[in-house]
């Protein structure tokens, strides 16, 4: 017996989603109101029942179109199981990508999640690689002024994120459905095509910056982890120059003098290849296992197959590792505080423990924080499955509060306990510990595995936005996907080899992207809405213009310090 309205029995997420249709239909950024949604005819599913098409009055083309439409509706139903309409937004991210625990048991029967899960999803999405750079960023601003900036930037970014959350509301007369619209949809309606494309481009730029930072850190973690195993096999030799003839204090050393400039990398690569050809008796391990040479390339070979999956569903199951890694870093830094004690001196500038309260390099912290508090391109997706939408403002503020607490805790603990000059704090604070430090070695292995599971999600988000903007679909074919992934990977490897500075990447990407997505677009959207409503006052105009100006000053300052 045939079943009407059934979508299918195959639960494979990699089913083909789209057949060739009009591009305008796919690129529709706003949805119709509920009353205007056209009714679909029931779909007759005959797969596996052995029914013949003989006598059918439906053409083969129409039948294929109906089948593909059914598959498409099934996908969107999965992405937003609590929605009343099967909507097709401009660029679709599964909400599970941002979930702290992607398990259905945490949702009610309608597919909605409670405030606790929403808060920790917000927290989990924002917490990332910035944690490792936060002690360095605090040192750049000074102890007291840095803490003020961490809290102040949290409040400012929360406000602009709240504007993003509220932006779809009250625009139903312009065709915006507040229950499903993305921020790019709002930008398109209120700011035009340039607003939509600006939001898209800078959203991709933020994701690219995340890929670059991940690649630098993963190369670092893989390199030092490999050295640990090599040292275990060769206990009488040392392949890490920084470990030789050094006196350690609380297992902390200053790696600054061992960092290479880009021109030195070129020279060393050529020199190593020349030595390899001339001297076959030299240490092969050192030549084929270098932090700013071979390791980023090895990483590319290992990870490239993982970047070409059509569906990211498998990798979302590891989102819980992000929570575990944050908890481990909190415990790790606190244990170092207990081990090394408080080493602060605010008065004697000649003291090894001197800590400045203010530093003119503070824009490095503001640039880093702009990216650290960035959630603006994902916040509507996270809150879409909120069981009680009236709690959105409260949950968002609590989420930002938790993130600010974690940044302050890690930065303060590490900065306070650091037993040598503060200028030695690395932009990846794990670099301040040798491979002989057990806790830092465990952290590197754990973070390496966690980042390997997150990187395919970042590349997937880049792919969906780029290809939807160009082709109107998220999977235009394997070869095109592979070509894009190769381009992203080549950029990431180049950054890891020639400019592996996590702090600088974070602050430049944060300041550049934040100017538009964190400061400019939310404020412009807010003022445009108020102008259309006739409620735009001069104080509102001045305040939000000042926020945009602050973002511009933040960007310019990155090139001054």
Automatic annotation (TrEMBL):
It comes from the Eukaryota. One of its GO terms (cellular component) is lysosomal membrane. Signal peptide: none annotated. Residues 116-232, 295-556 form the Amino acid transporter transmembrane domain. The chain crosses the membrane at residues 116-137, 143-165, 198-217, 288-307, 314-334, 354-375, 396-418, 438-461, 481-499, 505-528, 540-560. Belongs to the amino acid/polyamine transporter 2 family. SLC38A9 subfamily. This is Amino acid transporter transmembrane domain-containing protein.
């Amino acid at each position: 017996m045939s079943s009407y309205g059934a979508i299918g029995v195959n639960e494979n997420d990699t089913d083909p989603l789209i057949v060739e249709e009009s591009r305008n239909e796919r690129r529709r950024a706003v949805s119709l109101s509920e009353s205007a949604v056209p009714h679909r005819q029931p779909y007759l599913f005959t797969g596996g029942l052995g029914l013949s098409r003989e006598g059918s009055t439906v053409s083969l083309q129409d039948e294929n179109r109906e089948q593909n439409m059914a598959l498409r509706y099934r996908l969107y139903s999965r992405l937003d199981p609590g929605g009343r309409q099967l909507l097709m937004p401009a660029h679709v991210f599964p909400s599970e990508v941002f979930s702290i625990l992607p398990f259905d048991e945490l949702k009610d029967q309608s597919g909605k999640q409670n405030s606790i899960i929403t808060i920790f999803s917000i927290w989990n999405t924002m917490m990332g690689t910035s944690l490792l750079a936060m002690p360095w960023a605090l040192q750049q601003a000074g102890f007291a002024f840095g803490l003020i900036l961490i809290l102040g930037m949290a409040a400012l970014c929360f406000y602009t994120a709240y504007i993003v959350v509220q932006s779809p509301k009250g625009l139903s007369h312009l065709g915006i459905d507040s229950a499903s619209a993305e921020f790019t949809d709002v930008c398109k309606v209120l700011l035009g095509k340039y607003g939509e494309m600006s939001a898209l481009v800078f959203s991709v730029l933020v994701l690219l910056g995340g890929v670059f930072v991940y690649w630098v850190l993963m190369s670092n973690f893989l390199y030092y982890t490999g050295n640990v195993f090599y040292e275990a096999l060769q206990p009488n030799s040392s392949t890490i120059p920084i470990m030789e003839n050094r006196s350690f204090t609380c297992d902390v050393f200053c790696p600054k003098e061992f960092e290479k400039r880009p021109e030195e990398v070129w020279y060393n690569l050529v020199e190593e290849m020349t030595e390899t050809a001339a001297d076959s008796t030299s240490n092969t391990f050192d030549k084929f296992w270098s932090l700013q040479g071979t390791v980023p390339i090895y990483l590319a070979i290992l990870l490239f197959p993982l970047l070409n999956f059509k569906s990211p569903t498998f990798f979302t199951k590891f989102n819980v590792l992000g929570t575990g890694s944050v908890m481990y870093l909190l415990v790790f830094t606190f244990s170092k505080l207990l081990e090394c004690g408080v080493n602060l001196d605010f008065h004697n500038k000649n003291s090894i423990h001197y800590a400045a309260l203010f530093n003119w390099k503070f824009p490095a912290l503001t640039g880093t924080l702009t990216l650290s508090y960035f959630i603006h391109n994902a916040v509507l997706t996270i809150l879409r499955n909120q069981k009680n939408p009236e709690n959105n403002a409260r949950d968002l503020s609590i989420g930002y509060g938790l993130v600010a607490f974690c940044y302050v805790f890690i930065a303060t603990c590490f900065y306070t306990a650091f037993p040598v000059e503060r200028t030695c704090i690395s932009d990846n604070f794990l670099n301040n510990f040798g491979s002989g430090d057990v806790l830092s070695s465990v952290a590197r292995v754990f973070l390496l595995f966690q980042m390997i599971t997150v990187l395919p999600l970042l590349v997937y988000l880049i792919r969906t936005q780029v290809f939807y903007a160009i082709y109107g679909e998220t999977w235009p074919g394997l070869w095109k996907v592979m070509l894009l992934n190769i381009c992203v990977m080549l950029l990431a490897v180049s950054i890891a080899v020639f400019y592996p500075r996590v702090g600088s990447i974070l602050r430049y990407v944060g300041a550049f992207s934040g100017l538009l997505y964190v400061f400019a677009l939310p404020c412009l959207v807010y003022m445009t809405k108020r102008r259309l409503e006739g409620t735009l006052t001069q104080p509102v105009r001045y305040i939000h213009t000042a926020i945009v100006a602050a973002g511009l000053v933040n960007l310019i300052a990155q090139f001054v310090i």
